[in-house]
TrEMBL record:
PANTHER family: 2,5-DIAMINO-6-RIBOSYLAMINO-4(3H)-PYRIMIDINONE 5'-PHOSPHATE REDUCTASE (PTHR38011:SF11), DIHYDROFOLATE REDUCTASE FAMILY PROTEIN (AFU_ORTHOLOGUE AFUA_8G06820) (PTHR38011). It comes from the Bacteria. One of its GO terms (molecular function) is 5-amino-6-(5-phosphoribosylamino)uracil reductase activity. This is Dihydrofolate reductase. Coiled coil: none annotated. GO terms for biological process: riboflavin biosynthetic process. Residues 6-184 form the Bacterial bifunctional deaminase-reductase C-terminal domain. It comes from Thermocatellispora tengchongensis.
Length: 193
């Protein structure tokens, strides 16, 4: 019997827990060559399709075949004219305010993202990547099985938190960690008991 797919929140955060600045900025994260090479090799599917093309990455998906993101995570792609930012994945955008999406490769989900995740977990396939944002992560917290947190050595001050919503302490257990030359660290967490 094949096990259930997992919902994995693979996310970059600042020291103060921000995934982006107040204007959706992410360019304040210090990137390093060793970390970029590692992400490209280990999590190639988490790079947008147009970036993969620019970097010459044609690697198969290693962890995820499905992506769930909120409107705030999706809109930066729309601003640069990309309606299907992760064409190599099955894409869902959760939003009650976004108009129609003009790309058949991206499905708009207007309500009940918890039901969506539960349904996806029962389907065969690779794990499901929760790409962001903080509000959606807060709603989906009951279904998050793992966290892959890329912690960068920078304080953002203001911005979008990794999780927002109701107070709901949820225990996760560190499973592994890896450090990089830019001072960043990736830590894997599994849902605790």
């Amino acid at each position: 019997m094949i096990g259930l797919r997992k919902l994995v929140y693979y996310v970059a955060v600042s020291i103060d827990g921000r995934i982006a600045g107040p204007g959706d900025e992410t360019d304040f994260y210090p990137l390093g060559d060793d970390m970029t090479a590692w992400m490209s090799a280990e999590y190639p599917e988490t790079l947008p399709t147009h970036i993969r093309a620019q970097l010459g990455i044609d690697a198969p998906n290693k962890h995820f075949d499905t992506l769930i993101m909120g409107r705030g995570t999706y809109e930066p792609a729309l601003r640069i004219g990309v309606a299907s930012p992760y064409a190599h994945l099955r894409q869902y955008v959760v939003s009650t305010t976004l108009g129609a999406i003009d790309d058949p490769g991206v499905e708009l989900v207007r309500n009940d993202p918890l039901k969506l995740v539960r349904d996806l977990k029962r389907q065969p396939g690779m794990d499901i990547w929760l790409c962001g944002g903080g509000k959606l992560a807060g709603v989906l917290l009951p279904e998050i099985d793992e966290l892959v947190v890329k912690s960068y050595p920078v304080v953002a001050g203001d911005g979008i938190p990794a999780f927002s919503g109701a107070f709901s302490p949820t225990r996760f257990t560190p499973a592994d960690t890896r450090a990089f030359g830019n001072g960043a660290r990736v830590t894997w967490f599994t849902r605790g008991a």
